[in-house]
Amino acid sequence: MPKVVDHEERRRRLGAAACAVLNRAGSAGTTVRAVAGEAGMPLATAQHYLPTRELMVRAAMAHLADRVVNRAQRIPTGSTALDTLWLAVLELVPLDLDRLFEARVWLVLTAESLIDEGIATVLRDNAVELRGNLERLAALVKRDGGIAADADVPAVVSAITTLMDGLTIRLLSGALTPVEARAEVDAHFAGLSAGAPTVPLAGKPDDHANRRAAGGGPGGRAPRAATGNGESAGRSAG
């Protein structure tokens, strides 16, 4: 019998390999030969699936998107909409090695987008989708009374995305520790909150880290476990 080949699995392997090479060698070192070697595939096989550098980069971007979406679907639903938004933002900031890896690849691709309109278009589309998800969640926060009734939702989300981008760059450069980044997120959400949380958000960084490790939200409340496939938090985190 002829061997059954899982073409999608091979594309996923090559996408993961492309991300690994981009992370290690940057854009200049990302060749089909290097990606084939990383994936443990013959060069001819890799060239069959990714005959051009553009397709290779797109495979890397698709792999990144899959990682983020899969992780977002596991974000628990907070006891309030504000808690859920807080959890989503913490998940989108690179606070561990896996997310630092993703952020490094994202930064390499962002630099590449300055001279490659195809990559720039995909990154813009991703940013628009993320913003839309955050705006929908922020609107729920406003309806829930988690932020001021007269709050401008697009402005709230602009401030959040600006915060996330700044934290990402500072974490990647080593100018900020994960504990310090968590403290900045908590301080930002303290400013957003329309009411006084049961646990002050601007406390010691260790308090924020411990509360998140224990599953607590911005107000010190434990978030509800996600139900079904976690669609609420997953859609919100994009």
Describe the structure.
68% of the residues lie in helices and 0% in strands. The protein contains eleven helices and no strands. Helix 1 crosses helix 2 and helix 1 (7-25) packs across helix 6 (97-113). The longest helix is centred in the middle third of the chain and has 27 residues, at 117-143. The radius of gyration is 20 Å and the shape is elongated.
Properties at a glance:
single chain, 238 residues, mainly alpha, 11 helices, elongated, disordered C terminus
Give me a quick take on this structure.
This protein has 238 residues and is mainly alpha-helical. Helices cover 68% and strands 0% of the residues.
Series of H and E elements: HHHHHHHHHHH
Task: Quote the distance from N terminus to C terminus.
Answer: 43 Å
Q: Largest sheet at a glance?
A: none
What is the count of helical runs?
11
Number of strands: 0
**Which regions are unreliable across 5 or more consecutive residues at pLDDT < 50?**
195-215, 220-238
Q: What is the radius of gyration computed over CA atoms, rounded to a whole number of angstroms?
A: 20 Å
Approximate helicity band: 55-70%
Mean pLDDT: 81
Mass-distribution shape: elongated
Note the beta-strand portion: under 5%
Structural class comes to mainly alpha
